[in-house]
Design a protein that fits this description.
It is a single chain. With 50 residues, this protein is an alpha+beta fold. The protein has one domain. It has a 3-stranded mixed sheet with strand order 1-2-3, with helices on one face. Strand 2 and strand 3 form a beta hairpin.
């Protein structure tokens, strides 16, 4: 949860002409569908994958 909160705070005031969607999934099964967002982080055995 801590990583997702930090990423959200970093991107909160970022200027973008469109909405930026962020997902963080701690599960390799990717239940948060992080692979289809503009910024996605998926937990894997060796750490994480962007």
């Amino acid at each position: 949860m801590d990583m997702g909160v930090k990423l959200e705070r970093m991107l909160f005031d970022m200027y973008s002409p469109h909405k930026v969607k962020l997902a963080v999934s701690g599960c390799p099964r990717n239940r948060a569908v992080a692979g289809v967002k503009e910024v996605g982080v998926i937990g894997v055995d060796s750490g994480y994958e962007l």
